[in-house]
Design a protein that fits this description.
- With 247 residues, the protein is α+β, with helices and mostly antiparallel strands.
- The chain folds into two domains: 3-110, Roll (Ubiquitin-like (UB roll)); 116-129 and 143-246, Alpha-helical ferredoxin (Fumarate Reductase Iron-sulfur Protein, Chain B, domain 2).
- It is built from eight helices and seven strands.
- It has helices at residues 33-46, 117-126, 146-156, 163-167, 174-185, 194-207, 218-222, 230-246; strands at residues 3-9, 18-24, 69-70, 73-74, 95-99, 108-110, 113-114.
- The strands form two sheets. Strands 2-1-5-3-4 form a five-stranded mixed sheet. It has a two-stranded antiparallel sheet with strand order 6-7.
- A hairpin with a 2-residue loop joins strand 3 and strand 4.
- Helix 2 packs antiparallel against helix 6.
- It is elongated and about 60 Å long.
- The termini are far apart.
- It binds iron/sulfur cluster and FE2/S2 (inorganic) cluster.
- GO terms for molecular function: 2 iron, 2 sulfur cluster binding; 3 iron, 4 sulfur cluster binding; 4 iron, 4 sulfur cluster binding; electron transfer activity; metal ion binding; succinate dehydrogenase (quinone) activity.
- It comes from Intrasporangium chromatireducens Q5-1.
- It holds the Pfam family Fer2_3.
- Residues 149-179 form the 4Fe-4S ferredoxin-type domain.
- Its cofactor is [4Fe-4S] cluster; [2Fe-2S] cluster; [3Fe-4S] cluster.
Length: 247
């Protein structure tokens, strides 16, 4: 396939960015989207031009590093991660725009790379369970009912990619936050800090500049791990309980 790429180039956090047009040729439909960008970068390197900066790590849909806005959609036309998106989802002659996540809380570092450390600070604010470490406890000493374990597992599938924020018109991180709160709130070990967790994480969410949820649902549609909006309901339920305890 031969493709026209319009890619956001930005030399640094304070630099003025712009869309730059590139042509790529002989792209195999079996390549991943990132491999296609690798081909373009090899070409730019060979010409002595600055390669395009973009993030990736596992390239297996696990780490959440590879977020890109592709022709206006978070991770492109399929509901998957960019590294798991293949060129067979495009057609010969297509024009594809490639941009970084757009959200105040995810400032651009360079080209397509954004700073997602706001997510780390949300986790630091409360997305953990405090335990005394020591010998591993006997596996059946803390029974967890199967439906609760399944729900916790479904929420724990969130890989922190940020597609929910990028897709949301409010740049809200409530789906990410809801996934963490639901995951930890389903376990007995998560109960002692449950109320403090939701208040601290939501406070940090607002401090980071993420917007509020207005139930639009773009987050769930864009989520490569199929995190459902019921986790946002859970977040709101936990917040209400926490506020009742404080009054
Ligand atoms: S909720 Fe989904 S879209 Fe949002 S960070 Fe987690 S995996 Fe990514
Ligand atoms: S590079 Fe790890 S999820 Fe895409």
């Amino acid at each position: 396939m031969n493709l026209t790429l319009k890619i956001w180039r930005q030399a640094g956090p304070k630099a003025k960015g712009e869309m730059v047009t590139y042509q790529v040729t002989d792209i195999s439909p079996d390549m991943s989207f990132l491999e296609m960008l690798d081909v373009l970068n090899e070409d730019l390197n060979a010409k002595g031009e600055e390669p395009i900066a973009f993030d990736s790590d596992c390239r297996e849909g696990i780490c959440g590093m590879c977020g890109l806005m592709i022709s206006g959609k978070a991770h492109g036309p399929e509901v998957t991660t960019t590294c798991q998106l293949h060129m067979r989802s495009f057609h010969d002659g297509d024009e594809i725009t490639i941009e970084p996540w757009r959200a105040d809380a995810f400032p651009v570092i360079k080209d397509l790379v954004v700073d997602r450390s706001a997510f780390d600070r949300l986790i630091q604010a409360g997305g953990f369970i405090s335990v005394n470490t020591g010998a591993a406890p006997e596996a059946h000493s803390v029974p967890v009912p199967k439906p609760r374990a399944d729900r916790a597992f479904d929420a724990a599938k969130c890989i922190g990619c940020g597609a929910c924020v990028a897709a949301c018109p409010n740049a809200s991180a409530m789906l990410f936050l809801g996934a963490k709160v639901t995951h930890l709130g389903e376990f007995p070990q998560g109960q002692p800090e449950r109320s403090a967790r939701v208040v601290k994480m939501l406070t940090q969410h607002d401090l980071e500049g993420f917007g509020g949820c207005t139930n639009i649902g773009e987050c769930t549609n864009a989520c490569p791990k199929e995190i459902q909006q019921d986790v946002i309901n859970q977040l709101n339920i936990d917040l209400r309980h926490a506020l009742q305890q404080m009054t």
